[in-house]
Design a protein that fits this description.
By secondary structure, the protein is of the alpha/beta class. It folds into two domains: about 10-165, 3-Layer(aba) Sandwich (Rossmann fold); about 170-295, N-(1-d-carboxylethyl)-l-norvaline Dehydrogenase, domain 2. Helix content is about 50%, strand content about 15%. The model has no long low-confidence stretch (mean pLDDT about 95). The structure holds NADPH dihydro-nicotinamide-adenine-dinucleotide phosphate (NDP). NADPH dihydro-nicotinamide-adenine-dinucleotide phosphate binds near residues 14 and 80.
Length: about 300
């Protein structure tokens, strides 16, 4: 912090692994931080680093205009803050939740006289305060709150504001995590297939990385086709062929004595899209199948 850097005052509710990592970056940057945690012992190390430790959530909230919350889940936010006066406060909720929980929290905060922004943290605690690690936080809700506090919010990790709908930070967060879990499922299947064979996992690893990188084109391809609703122009791997090809995946799993439970729902989706209209959908890209997911 240089002499010209403004010193901000803020409150942080929640000193789990993530809250503690956030706290350390604000203290290291010279900001005045008041903390509260249900298990008071977790505040001890931070007090030694300069944090002011509140005796109760009400005292922590009263200490500053900006109140950052990072608790386990949405229910714990209610149990820590229900009944506390939030009049005139700027509440930033970095607790992971669903879009509906984010929107309901916004109403809850506004009814208590606060401005509200919800956040979705795209980083692990080890990436907090390490800009080169590439972590960041999605924010949505009150633009005015975000603009007021942007500099201090950017201390732990980059900040990406994704709109005034308080549910959209969570929606972006969960969309990215859903893609990640699908990738983890596919990688798990790949390693399960070679278990017990004379192929070392460490030899498959670089091949998997290279292949998944090359197949990343699907992200942009899907976005373009969903926008244009054109699933047939320029198709080089058509759905009819892919339904036959993915059958090979299921038979190979069977041959290897490996369950296909992580893979078969996606294959079923492709089959359903084809079966609905083989003449029309057979020539399509596989992207069209995702339309079946929307209830
Ligand atoms: P931890 O399990 O380490 O900490 C949970 C925190 O919530 C603790 O401060 C705990 O208090 C508090 N808490 C739980 N229940 C209650 C309650 N009923 N009333 C008051 N306080 C409560 O979790 P993290 O710090 O890792 O995660 C915090 C948030 O950050 C979560 O929403 C998580 O999804 C999100 N996040 C975490 C990431 C990670 O890799 N760790 C990555 C991205 C997001 P106590 O100490 O008393 O138990």
């Amino acid at each position: 912090m240089t002499d010209n850097t403004p010193r901000h005052s803020l409150t942080l509710i929640g000193l789990g692994d993530m809250g503690t990592a956030l706290a350390r970056t604000w203290l290291a940057a010279g900001h005045r931080l008041t903390v509260w945690n249900r298990t008071a012992a977790k505040a001890g190390a931070l007090a030694a680093e300069g944090a002011l430790v509140a005796e109760s959530p009400a005292e922590a909230v009263a200490a500053n205009g900006l109140v950052v919350v990072c608790l386990l889940d949405d229910a714990s936010v209610g149990s820590a803050l229900d009944g506390i006066d939030l009049t005139g406060k700027d509440v930033v909720n970095l607790t992971t939740g669903t879009p509906a929980e984010g929107r309901a929290r916004a109403v809850w905060a506004e009814e208590r006289g606060a401005r509200f922004v919800d956040g979705g943290i795209m980083a692990t605690p080890t990436m907090i305060g390490v800009p080169e690690a590439g972590g960041y936080v999605f924010y949505s809700g009150s633009r005015a709150l975000f603009d007021t506090h942007r500099a201090v919010l950017e201390v732990p990790a980059g900040a990406r504001f994704v709109g005034e709908d308080a549910g959209h930070a969570a929606l972006h967060d969960v969309a990215l995590l859903s893609a990640m879990w699908g990738m983890f499922a596919g990688i798990s299947q790949a390693y399960a297939l070679i278990e017990g064979e004379d192929i070392a996992p460490k030899d498959l690893a670089p091949l998997l990385s290279e292949w998944l990188g090359a197949m990343g084109f699907f992200i942009g391809n899907a976005a373009e086709r969903l926008t244009s609703r054109d699933f047939t122009s320029g198709v080089v791997s058509n759905l009819a062929m892919q339904v036959v090809g993915t059958g090979t995946m299921l038979r190979t799993a069977d041959e290897q004595g490996v369950s296909a439970e992580l893979i078969s729902p996606y294959v079923d989706l492709l089959r359903r899209r084809l079966a609905a209209d083989p003449a029309a959908h057979g020539a399509e890209d596989t992207v069209g199948a995702l339309l079946l997911l929307k209830r």
